[in-house]
TrEMBL record:
Residues 159-178 are annotated as: Disordered. The lineage of its organism: Eukaryota, Sar, Alveolata, Ciliophora, Intramacronucleata. This is CS domain-containing protein. Residues 182-224 form the CS domain. Residues 168-177 have a biased composition (Polar residues). InterPro entries: CS_dom (IPR007052), HSP20-like_chaperone (IPR008978). Transmembrane segments: none annotated.
Length: 228
């Protein structure tokens, strides 16, 4: 975050608000206009620098529990940053044909057996090419993944807090559900869980702790478990 903050760059507020509405379903501009959200809080939210983590390769037994992620400025589009051709090319070669990165990108690699051991692993410059072995493994992993795998994870996330699924959501091409504590939706590639915790701003992320494995998700806010 400090790195991207030092780079500066002014973000287009209208683009940011559109992105936030697309991600959360909440029209923050409308809430601020109606007095339902403090303008200072909105300004702080839009000016906060944060890092978006894009998981490229997931740790599985087949790939030796190797995991690779890319880190970027989450306001890259709103700042009008130039496309990072190298990072974009790597992601697309690894099985993400629609992915585009803007601005500077950091690549992280870890060993994660999803149970006991987690450690960082070197990612040398020699691996930053589309012919690298990890790119081939990642592409195969993407090809093997199916919506059934994602649906299974979504089911297990809601195992202790069954989501209310209505006939409308069953007819929708995108599976969704909702409880008193959170709502979720599933696409072919991911499950998005949005928690209904009030009073938190983007800068309060230190108050939130998230731990997950392939079959379990635990989220704590201010020391209290929201889902486990």
């Amino acid at each position: 975050e400090q790195y991207f903050a030092r780079l500066g760059g002014e973000a287009d507020r209208s683009v940011l608000l559109e992105q936030l509405q697309a991600r959360t379903g909440v029209d923050l501009k409308d809430k601020a206009a109606k007095g339902e959200m403090d303008q200072k809080a909105l300004d702080q939210l839009l000016s906060t620098t944060s890092v978006e983590i894009f998981p490229v390769m997931l740790p599985t037994k087949e790939n030796g529990f190797d995991a690779i992620s890319m880190y970027c400025d989450d306001k890259g589009v709103a700042k009008g940053l130039e496309e990072n051709a190298r990072a974009t090319g790597l992601a697309r070669a690894a099985g993400f044909p629609q992915q585009t990165f803007r601005g500077d990108i950091f690549v992280g690699r870890v060993f994660d057996d999803t149970e006991d051991e987690w450690r960082r692993v070197d990612f040398p410059l020699s691996l930053c090419n589309s012919d690298a072995e990890w790119v081939t493994k990642c592409k195969k992993q993407r090809e093997r993944r199916s919506s059934c795998d994602i649906k299974s994870l979504a089911d297990q996330i809601g195992a202790n807090n069954p989501a209310k699924v209505t006939p409308d959501t069953m007819q929708d091409a995108t599976p969704t559900g909702e409880t008193d504590a959170y709502k979720w939706r599933q696409t072919d590639d991911e499950v998005e869980v949005t928690f209904k915790t009030e009073g938190l701003q983007k800068g309060d992320k230190k108050l939130v702790k998230v731990a997950f494995t392939r079959a379990h998700l635990k989220v704590e806010v201010r020391g209290q478990a929201v889902i486990d």
